[in-house]
Amino acid sequence: MKRKIFILLFVFSMFVTATSFAQFNPFTDQTKMLTAGVGFSGWGVPVFVKYEHPVADNITVGGALSFQNYSETYSSYKWKHTISGLNGIASYHFNEVLSIPDQWDLYAGATLGYYFWNTKYKGSGDFVYSGSGSGGFSLGAHVGGRYFFSDKLGVNLEFGGGTVLAGGTLGITIIL
């Protein structure tokens, strides 16, 4: 599944690269951005969708939803975990300060998240357990970049820590 998603993103980015090369600065136009993709995590492969809205020069705020599941097996014991996340995001974009070309977007910021989980356990014999709850709040940091292929479409790579999407994310950004 991971391999198919990465191949799809690669083919899509190659198509976009071959068809358009416009320069665009989303922070001078006060436009909104929607990013969707996959994450890197020690707890399965999360999928996410993120919305960002400029609120001041070079500053965006927004939110993200994420979902992931993974399984663990030790001997005859099996666990299946599902984690859903709700995150608030604030980022500072360094393009103006660093005089970066408009088609690039380099940023860093903070994330405040809340997570819900569900775990199913099956032990040896007929013993089965199912539990769910909330993981509480998390505070994380992120650093990332985007490359815009056109005035409406770009690719996004982000690394961070402190959230379920801690390893990082790879996605496609659409300018709304």
CATH class: Mainly Beta
Number of helices: 2
Radius of gyration: 19 Å
Strand tally: 8
Question: How many strands, which pairing sense, and closed or not: the largest β-sheet?
Answer: 8 strands, antiparallel, barrel
- End-to-end separation: 29 Å
> Helix amount, in percent?
10-25%
Strand order of the largest sheet: 1-2-3-4-5-6-7-8
Roughly what fraction of the amino acids lie in strands? over 45%
- The global form is elongated
Structural class label: mainly beta
Stretches with pLDDT under 50, minimum 5 residues: 14-24
Q: Which whole number gives the mean pLDDT? A: 81
Task: Find the CATH topology.
Answer: Porin
The second-level CATH architecture is Beta Barrel
The secondary-structure element order is HEEEEHEEEE
In total, the number of domains comes to: 1
Structure description:
With 176 residues, this protein is mainly beta. It has one domain: Porin, CATH 2.40.160. Helices cover 12% and strands 61% of the residues. The chain contains two helices and eight strands. It has helices at residues 2-19, 95-98; strands spanning 33-40, 47-56, 59-74, 77-93, 104-122, 128-148, 153-161, 168-175. Strands 1-2-3-4-5-6-7-8 form an eight-stranded antiparallel beta barrel. Residues 14-24 have low confidence and may be disordered.
Would you summarize the structure shown here?
It is built from two helices and eight strands, in the order αββββαββββ. With about 180 residues, the chain is mostly beta strands. The protein has an eight-stranded antiparallel beta barrel with strand order 1-2-3-4-5-6-7-8.
